[in-house]
Amino acid sequence: MSSGSRASASSYAPRKILITGAAGFIASHVTNRLIKNYPDYKIVALDKLDYCSSLGNLLPCRSSPNFKFLKGDITCADLVNYLLVAEDIDTIMHFAAQSHVDNSFGNSFEFTNNNIYGTHVLLEACKVTQKIKRFIHVSTDEVYGETDLETDIGNPEASQLLPTNPYSATKAGAEMLVMAYHRSYGLPTITTRGNNVYGPNQFPEKLIPKFILLAMKGEKLPIHGNGSNVRSYLYCEDVAEAFDVILHKGVIGHVYNIGTQKERSVLDVADDVCKLFRLNSEETIHYVQDRPFNDQRYFLDDQKLKKLGWQEKTTWDEGLKKTMEWYTKNPHWWGDVLSALNPHPSISMLTDSTDNYETFMKCGNRTETLTGADSGLKFLVYGRSGWIGGLLGKLCKDKGIVFEYGNGRLEDRNSLVNDVKRVRPTHVFNAAGVTGRPNVDWCESHKAETIRANAVGTLTLADVCKEHNLLMMNFATGCIFEYDKEHRQGSGIGFKEEDTPNFIGSFYSKTKAMVEELLKEYDQNVCTLRVRMPISTDLSNPRNFITKISRYNKVVNIPNSMTVLDELLPISIEMAKRNCRGIWNFTNPGVISHNEILELYRNYMDPEFKWENLTWKSNPR
User: Fold this and answer.
1) Which Pfam families does its entry note (predicted)?
2) pLDDT digit string, tens, across residues 554-594
3) CB distance 286 to 220 below 8 Å
4) Which of 267, 278, 525, 614 has the least CB density, counted as fewest CB within 10 Å?
5) Annotated catalytic residue: which of 50, 141, 238, 272?
6) 237 is an active site residue
7) 325 is catalytic
8) What span, in angstroms and rounded, lies between the C-alpha atoms of 457 and 418?
9) Beta partners for residue 69, in sequence order
10) What is the pLDDT of residues 492-501, one digit of tens each?
């Protein structure tokens, strides 16, 4: 395998190209262009069909004899190695990645797995098979970090990488692997770093399609912060041409920025969308809380790619109009996207691409458009007056999911049956129960009430759901374990879903552990979510664990698993959509001690805050 550090004057001509993430937005435009313009090239499209991919994006390729689609994940080493050999691949264009910054703040491990580990699997397969003559790695302008607002000089390809969010950090990490495999093993790599891309077929978690779909519905356009953040936007067809040029003329070992000098603020974009739809921007634009960190500007030096012969052709006005016309004609292309249209989507797994795959395979040469179906969800929620139940209702409203709160008491079977007949739900959420007034000590002196609510009520609801063939999402507790010899404090060994509860230090925990065991008899229609020390960004709620312990004079300093409701409650809705069952430890990764929480509270909320520690003989986890 030759690194070919000096390119010859002649263009590179691939034979068989593997395109990863081919059913995604940018990759599908590149795939369609190559199939159309190069009938001698064989294209193998690989995609796991995640929420932001659709085989509908590849419809122009469907009848081509030199096109093959395979559903699969780049993190599967056996699959990747097999494909490179069986398909005799000589060129890889690696687009597959998790790319939405908002999601990376709440689901960063998935970004590490896809963007870094997936890239590593591909690189190792190339090293082993020794058949690859070009490996084009697709990265992002965000790896450079924030550009100074005052400069008129864009980041050249030799600039230092200074990523500022989990997404860009994983892309920078993947780039380091690509560079290492080029230098250590002579892998013939080329890396691209691109500005924002827009156009038809883009999943509407991204800014421009989100604004267009919201404008079509006559709804507010949410602006993060003050809308002054500046971005450069390239139309998808121009970007597809850029990859065409880099594939054929790019120099091995080099990096190419794919950018434009024309910048627009987020507020400018919103104004332009309003003008296209003849909306009053002052009435339509709505300012919302900013991201945890939102770079002010990304600005690229685009001269290197221009020297290869590429030029941006589509003006902003022309591209935005084309994009608007496409979404107007294809409003249901992505199916139910209400969650993606939220100002701060926390998780996006919205379409069932498997169904689309079957439809695509059956279409043959017909020109049918693939669209998703309406979700048809309707939730019956118990726990209206509780913290989690109240947040669930708000989430359903924000996501456009039809729901109603139950009127019946859980221990009254007839009232539950009447609720089911009245609401006719697809799923039931149980967030009702007794945790104590104001704390679990109340349960010690009110055992009958605790049993009635936490045991009898939950079991009755599970039985009614089984009778009506309904899935019950049951919010339980993780306060049923304590550190023991097999799970020592500080060992990093946590309790698994199948472990037997071992904490009997409170009557509350006893009832919860007992119910969890009995619910196993309803394992076909119950999904149990073990919540532990729930916290959220709402510090005004007295049930928030941060708020609760900040009001104590003395606290026990124990490392605990935590449930960040802002991140995990939306996942419970997604789990209901997927009909998940069984027991799940519904907590964020790792542990944090009570002292660490209070230190953060002091540092960010109250510099004068003080507390004392007390000892505790039994350490619940």
Assistant:
1) GDP_Man_Dehyd, RmlD_sub_bind
2) 888 888 899 999 889 999 998 998 889 999 999 988 888 88
3) yes
4) 278
5) 141
6) no
7) no
8) 15
9) 45
10) 888 888 888 9
